[in-house]
Amino acid sequence: DAKTTQPNSMESNEEEPVHLPCNHSTISGTDYIHWYRQLPSQGPEYVIHGLTSNVNNRMASLAIAEDRKSSTLILHRATLRDAAVYYCISGGEYGNKLVFGAGTILRVKS
Amino acid sequence: NAGVTQTPKFQVLKTGQSMTLQCAQDMNHEYMSWYRQDPGMGLRLIHYSVGAGITDQGEVPNGYNVSRSTTEDFPLRLLSAAPSQTSVYFCASSYADRLGPYNSPLHFGNGTRLTVT
Which residues of chain B have a CB within 8 Å of the CB of A32? Predict the structure, then answer.
C-alpha cells in the first residue's frame, strides 16, 4: 500500500475555506486516493475519493496533482462541525487493506 | 439501514480472558475488516475478509482470530487478552467494485472500547 504524508495539525477560521494537503509520492497507477475524517468518539467517516481527476461531492472537493504524487482536500466553508482528524490514504485492490496514518488534526476557530 | 453494528460498546477484561467482539452489516458488503486504534494514532488493520469463508491477516494479527461464515457477520476473537490489547476496535465494510481496483468507500461502526487489566 502507498504511504502518505500529512501535516500533524492545521487551524482554520469558521466560514473560511480549508486546504488539507497530502503527499503520496509512491502511489501506483491503480491506487485510489481516499479521504476519511474522524470526529471525537466516533468511527471514521468517508469524505471523498478519486483516481486521477478532481472530484467534488456535497462534503468536499479533492484536487489531485497531475503527477498524482500529492492531493488536496478542500472544505469550501469550514464549520465547527468540521473539526476532526482527517486521514489521507491510498490503497489498491481491496479497500480493507487501506493503511491509515496519524492524519491531520483540523481545528476550527469561531 | 443500520449500517455496521458493533457490540459491545465497552468491555473490561482481565488478563488471560477471552472474548468475541461482534460486527454485523446489513448492506450485503463483500469486504469486511477489523482495525484497532490506540490513543493519538491512526488505525491499524488486524484482519480482513473479501467474502464468506475467506479471511486474511492485516498489519497486526497476533492475538486475534476471525471467521466469516456469513456475509453479514465478521466476529473478532481475542484468544487470551493482554494489556497491550487495550484499544478501540473498529469494524468496517465495503462492497466490491466489479470493474477493477477498489474504489468503494469503507463504512465504519462506532467502535468497541476494550480495556484489559
Answer: 101-103
Give the containing element (helix H, strand E) for B45: strand B43-51
Backbone φ and ψ of A81, nearest 5°: -75, -10
Q: What pLDDT digit, counting tens, does each position of B14-59 carry?
A: 999 999 999 999 999 988 999 999 987 788 889 999 889 999 998 8
Cβ–Cβ of A30/B101 closer than 8 Å?
yes
Kindly tell me the burial class for residue A49, based on how many C-beta atoms sit within 10 Å of its own C-beta (0-12, 13-18, 19 or more): buried
> Angle CA(A2)–CA(B40)–CA(B112) in degrees, nearest 5?
95
CA neighbours closer than 13 Å in the CB half-sphere of residue B19: 19
For B43, which residue in chain A has the nearest alpha carbon?
A100
Cell of B37: 486504534
The dihedral through the CA atoms of A49, A54, A55, A58 has a sign that is positive
Chain A: give the shortest CA distance to residue B81, in Å.
23
What average pLDDT does chain A have?
88
Please give the span between the terminal C-alpha atoms of chain A, in angstroms, as a whole number.
Answer: 38
Share of chain A above pLDDT 90, in %: 65
CA separation, residue B33 to residues A62, A71, B45, B67 (Å):
26, 26, 7, 11
Mean predicted confidence (pLDDT) in B79-106: 82
